[in-house]
Design a protein that fits this description.
Layout (H helix, E strand, L loop, with lengths): L2 H11 L14 E5 L2 E4 L4 E4 L2 H4 L8 H12 L12 H14 L4 E6 L2 H16 L3 E5 L8 H5 L4 H4 L7 E5 L17 H16 L6 E4 L15 H12 L2 E5 L24 E4 L10 E6 H4 L14 H16 L2 H19 L6 E7 L2 E6 L9 H14 L1 E2 L1 E3 L5 E4 L7 H24 L1
Parallel strand pairs: 3-13, 5-6, 5-7, 7-8, 8-9
Antiparallel strand pairs: 1-2, 2-3, 4-10, 9-10, 11-12, 12-15, 14-15
Helix pairs in contact: 3-11, 4-11, 8-9, 12-14, 13-14
Bound molecules: 4'-deoxy-4'-aminopyridoxal-5'-phosphate (PMP).
The site of 4'-deoxy-4'-aminopyridoxal-5'-phosphate has 16 residues, from helix 5.
Length: 435
Amino acid sequence: MTADDLLARHRAVLPSWMPLYYAEPIELVAGSGRRVTDAQGRSYLDFFGGVLTNMIGYDIPEIREAVERQLRTGLVHTSTLYLIRQQVELAEKVTSLAGIPDARVFFTNSGTEANEAALLVATNHRRSHQILAVRNSYHGRSYATMGITGHRSWTASAHNPLQVAWLHSGERLRGLLARLPEADRMDAAVEDLREVLATQTSGDVACLIAEPIQGVGGFVAPPDGLFAGWRKVLDEHGILLISDEVQTGWGRTGEHFWGYQAHGVTPDLLTFAKGIGNGFALAGVVGRADIMESVPAISFSTFGGNPLCTAAGNAVLDYLRDHDLQANAARVGAILLDGLRATVADLDGVAEVRGKGLMLAVEFVRPGGLEPDPALAAGVLEACRAGGLLVGKGGLHGNVLRMGPPLTLTEDEAREGLAILVEAIRSAVAAEAAR
Ligand code: PMP
């Protein structure tokens, strides 16, 4: 069967609102280490990992063996009505890593569900359905999480069940904060919170939810310390702080294990997903026991925290610790960031090279200004593919190239990917200028 047949069949039975990358979409059929192979036998270095989901690499023996051991027991699921040893062990690891005192964790199957669970406990604890969320954020594709997502291309179809007010946070190139000197942006964002609270809410708000670095939004980081500035205001009202660490968790930013640590403040609740399962459906919310216990009705999950996925999660966290992958993310990420800054940051058409650790982005604009150029980003994506490298796209305007390789990326692989990236960016910028 050709790739075209599969694409036609895909289009016949899957909804059109599920986007596919590339003019000719890729079918991946195998993976090993940091490389994947498509149905035509072409190999790619993978700098995107689905969307920052492949944290350790493909077909890693320690993880495969842990999953195979569980499969051999014949027990893949039981439901949370039974004791699950793997789940308890993973909960012990996650609560001790989270940095939140006296924490409890509830496992889910996706980041969307993790944020749903966080909203459930926060709204019950505070007896309020008023939520503060951030412009340009992404929190999931369910009813409530689309309602708190500040990114119209993802939310235009959601009819919001929550009362949400939107905050400025980390705009760097466009928007109100971007017009201020960098040193003034944090105070302005805190002032914005005060104003939004006073003018758009009753003050009786359940929570503020924010990503330490906006993922889907194009790897946009608020000023370090903003969560602490917000926290002072939130504490005056008893409002909870939720850190959505679905993309920023597990050491990906290199400098910290959690994104919130760049802000010098501990959230009340933290949501995680993606990397912890290294491809298995595993996510959750971890938080202060008094908040986590505030749901009055009983609840359970058929698949959340099942033996197979939590076996994978335990192996992933052990691997992460044994190989000090946070330090690797810092070291190898610096090769990429410095390399990109030295080669492409000054090109007309590149507005900014930014990021931390192995969460790196390049933002593309029309020559001579700041008008977003999604066509240029798409051109770079295609050129990278042709060169044997998979990367991602994102940002409010689709004009940001995103890189989130496995945290096991080696220095040689970083240099190999960098060379492909630089060549792809230079050739796409030249082609765009000639248009
Ligand atoms: N929060 C953030 C910050 C995300 O990036 C995502 C997924 N891109 C989600 C939540 C939702 O996770 P999932 O796709 O696993 O439902």
